[in-house]
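Illustration 12: Signal peptidase I.
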Amino acid sequence: MANVKEKNEWIEWLKAIIIAIILAVIIRNFLFATSIVEGDSMDPTLENGERVVFNKFVYLVGEPARGDIVIIQRPQKNYVKRVIGLPGEIIEIRDHKLYINNEQYEQNFLTEDAINHTGNFGPIEIPKDSYFVMGDHRAISKDSRNGLGFITEEEIIGRSELVIFPLSEMSRTR
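Figure caption equivalent — predicted structure in token form:
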């Protein structure tokens, strides 16, 4: 009798482990994943080496919004940038100020130094199926202005939600 009980206990443990693995795979592939910030282009919001959790599900049910910090998947590497312009909008930067559809947009997430190092750009119209992204450290960021170009919705694989490493920097990124 004890042998049957031990066998049932092993089967229950095996079931629990299999369920845990399946849940982990589902969560990792469809809901949340992590990414490491490489470089200083999002400084001071995100710093080089920080690990962020990003939400993969949010854009399956909705669309990127202005201000979202997104993970962009490109063949050579992933990028972390902020959505600035939405499909069909006109973006222009002049005299260190950002204009969206000819209206000045306040960038409260930037430092004064970053604002003062944003060169002139545009005006340029964003295609209907694309987004315009920039890093928060405008002077050194490779973004829609200078190398990444417009970003399609298919390339945006998630929204950054939380810094999880280093622990001293744990916070929401939005």
